[in-house]
Amino acid sequence: MQNLPLFKDNKERRVFFIIIFLVFLFNIYNEYTNFTKFKTNEIYETKGTIVNSYSKENYLILKIKTKNFTFFTSTQQKSQFFKFQNINIYVVTQNIDFYSYLKGFYTKSFNLTIIKHDKTLKESLIQLIESQHSSKEIASLYSALFLASSLDPSIRELASNLGISHLIAISGFHLGLISFVLYFILHLLYNKVHNSLVPYRNKRFDIMIIVTIILFTYLLFLDLPASLLRAFVMFVFALFLLRCNIKLISFETLFIITIFIIALFPKLLFSLSLWFSIAGVFYILLFLKYFKGMNKYLQLLIFNFWIYLAINPIVHYFFATTSLEQLFSPLITILFTLFYPISVLLHMVNLGGFFDGLLQYLINLDIISSETFTPLWVFLIYLLISFFSTLKKEFFILLNIYIIVYNMWLFQSTFKEYLFIWI
After folding, report:
1. What pTM was computed for the model?
2. Is 221 helix (H, G, I), strand (E, B) or coil?
3. DSSP state for residue 268 in the 8-state scheme
4. Ordered alpha helix ranges (H), 163-225
5. How far is it, in rounded angstroms, from Cα 214 to Cα 209?
6. 169: which residues sit within 8 A by CB, 6+ positions away?
7. Which of 115, 143, 146, 211 is most deeply buried (CB count within 10 A of its CB)?
8. Bridge-based pairing state of the strands 70-75 and 105-106
9. pLDDT of 104-148, one tens digit each?
10. Can you give the residue ranges of every domain in the chain?
11. 40-117 is classed in which CATH architecture?
């Protein structure tokens, strides 16, 4: 059966965009209402949770999440405040505008007091993970992988040097692995029930509904991280399109999902993790569009390498760290496909420290890195060529030339540093 288009005609498309725009306006208005309440007085009292902390020489920077907004502040009481503590705090609102309110801001604060609370399930799970590791850094890695908690600075630096930050931040990649494992397990459990009690039902669809409910619960539990939210919306949208026999893999679908997420959650407009996630899916779609005729095994072999090289001009516009070890990122990504589900199972049976020796070796690696940003004009031209590549193959050929030249330029300075050391 031939796949149906997402919209029957331009009229349906216009109606959809009008509805999405109205939803966006409603949510922006709601955010602005909260902002005006926040700005009513120069001093605003609120309650929040410390989601991260950054130790400086004489003070501590805290990232605090409240019901309506997230912000940064500092305190000299370094020994008193830790992650996951609930606090009552007074913040200065004087120089904060609506844009900063949406994006996240830094402000002065005072009278920080800890609110005693019962240990949450997430805190208990993090403690359980920590009990299986002697290294605080490695425990931080697994907590980030499973529970989207903040990373230890040394692990964050290692991930950046190896070009694997996308593996640690929970995203669509992880969602795909989780859904695959859940589907496999549920298929085994549901098979006999389906055959004996409800053989008339669509077994695959029933299992996917159960998987969706589990994933949604997990998403709420993690407090809606942006990249995972994008992946979950795409997952649900894909189920809907498949059920309705509508074309699934398309750039229009990605665009619709993007504006849908931003309309519902306007603050995510400023989330780099969301945009990196969307960029990753965009280049995956480009790969599938032009390499679909390739031998399946060859396609599988070059997929991770091409995606990694294609995303570099965008990532390095925001983050400058460059090392030759980053060229191993596609191989690590392939190995991570096995490592992630196995490490989950090992932690479930209290054997989470199985890979600690290997991870400690990676942490202790002396990696030579340099700082190289993508120039603005290179970044903008790359985005334009990428966009036109969705329309014509000639632009896609040009894009591949651009990718090769860019990555040769990106790694040449680091390569020179290695040569200097070797010589």
Report:
1. 0.85
2. helix
3. G
4. 165-168, 172-196, 203-221
5. 9
6. 144, 148, 225, 227, 273
7. 143
8. parallel
9. 899 998 888 888 877 788 888 888 999 999 888 899 899 988 988
10. 40-117, 133-168+267-423
11. Beta Barrel (2.40)
